[in-house]
Amino acid sequence: MSDMRLIVAGAGGRMGRALIRTISETPGAVLAGALEAPGSELLGQDAGVLAGLPENGVKLSADLWTLSKDADGILDFTVPAATIANVAIAAQRGLVHVIGTTGLSSSDNAVIKSVTGQAIVVQSGNMSLGVNLLAALVKRVAQSLDDGFDIEVLEMHHKAKIDAPSGTAFMLGQAAAEGRKIPLEQHSARGRDGLTGARNTGDIGFASLRGGTVAGDHTVIFAGPYERIELSHKAEDRMIFAHGALKAAMWAHGKKPGLYSMADVLGLGDM
Ligand SMILES: NC(=O)C1=CN([C@@H]2O[C@H](COP(=O)(O)OP(=O)(O)OC[C@H]3O[C@@H](n4cnc5c(N)ncnc54)[C@H](OP(=O)(O)O)[C@@H]3O)[C@@H](O)[C@H]2O)C=CC1
Ligand SMILES: O=C(O)C1=N[C@H](C(=O)O)C[C@H](O)C1
């Protein structure tokens, strides 16, 4: 098979730059385009230079329709409005769309789902191997413990992160809810503040910390009578997410249209 031609959306962002570096190191992948927001001061700049590499001749552009004429996939770590705009074009062009953007609403997710009859989408709030394995472990532990054990999800990220709780925290909460066979929407406790009353039995709680340059720390706590189990993952470098995204794109190349997860990519679906 010829090289997979990939567009990086949000090319000037933290993940965008990590993805451009990862593509440059990945045999079988080539950077076909670099997308940035309309009006960004980075438009026209060289994607390689922005990512700390030698000049590669790929200039940042805000025109996905033109960029995608000759591409196979798009790696999208941007903001919800941009991802939703990209979904329609990726579907029309038949691109593999790897979606890492978090903070999506349920109606955004419904839009993504609506195109998967014709589009190949891999979506995950966290593309790392470690977190996807952690989610499988959380589900397994939640299956074994009844609601005598209170489940709390704690996350910490760098101070520039704009959404909370993190996409990963939701993934882990969802895994716990699946293990316990309850709907997360009806059992999630978020944003405690003030005179909240006692904790509801069976709730899954979320707490978010922000500060410094933390790439992403997540802990799921199972707090029972006189004992506690804590399962944690600490991302030391966002390159782990970029490597996961590349793996997802190359895995999805040539697959049938559908909505896939990182558990599918990593073969963790049955854990
Ligand atoms: N699933 C996973 O494994 C991971 C997910 N993420 C998620 O990825 C997203 C991005 O994170 P991060 O890179 O840290 O954030 P950044 O803010 O550093 O990057 C986002 C980039 O997207 C750009 N952008 C905004 N609008 C558009 C548009 N319409 N078209 C193209 N580009 C646009 C921004 O440009 P401008 O600054 O000009 O607005 C910015 O350069 C977040 O939602 C984050 O939570 C992050 C890491 C891992
Ligand atoms: O914004 C980030 O940085 C990250 N976002 C993702 C999330 O919301 O979970 C993944 C990772 O934790 C880094």
Write the layout of secondary structure elements.
Layout: E1 4-9, H1 14-25, E2 29-35, H2 47-50, E3 60-61, H3 64-67, E4 73-76, H4 80-93, E5 96-99, H5 106-115, E6 120-123, H6 129-144, E7 150-157, H7 167-180, E8 188-190, E9 204-210, E10 217-224, E11 227-234, H8 239-252, E12 258-260, H9 262-266
Parallel strand pairs: 1-2, 1-4, 2-3, 4-5, 5-6, 6-12, 7-9, 8-9
Antiparallel strand pairs: 7-10, 10-11
The structure holds NADPH dihydro-nicotinamide-adenine-dinucleotide phosphate and ligand LZUJQKHR.
Residues 102, 125-126, 157, 161, 166-168, 216 line the site of the ligand O=C(O)C1=N[C@H](C(=O)O)C[C@H](O)C1.
Overview of this structure, please?
The chain has two domains: 4-127 and 238-266, NAD(P)-binding Rossmann-like Domain (Rossmann fold); 129-234, Dihydrodipicolinate Reductase, domain 2. The protein has helices at residues 14-25, 47-50, 64-67, 80-93, 106-115, 129-144, 167-180, 239-252, 262-266; strands spanning 4-9, 29-35, 60-61, 73-76, 96-99, 120-123, 150-157, 188-190, 204-210, 217-224, 227-234, 258-260. The relative contact order is 0.16. The longest helix is centred in the middle third of the chain and has 16 residues, at 129-144. Helix 2 (47-50) links the parallel strand 2 (29-35) and strand 3 (60-61). The protein is α/β, with parallel strands linked by helices. The radius of gyration is 19 Å and the shape is elongated. The mean pLDDT is 97. Helices cover 34% and strands 24% of the residues. The protein contains nine helices and twelve strands. Bound molecules: NADPH dihydro-nicotinamide-adenine-dinucleotide phosphate and the ligand O=C(O)C1=N[C@H](C(=O)O)C[C@H](O)C1.
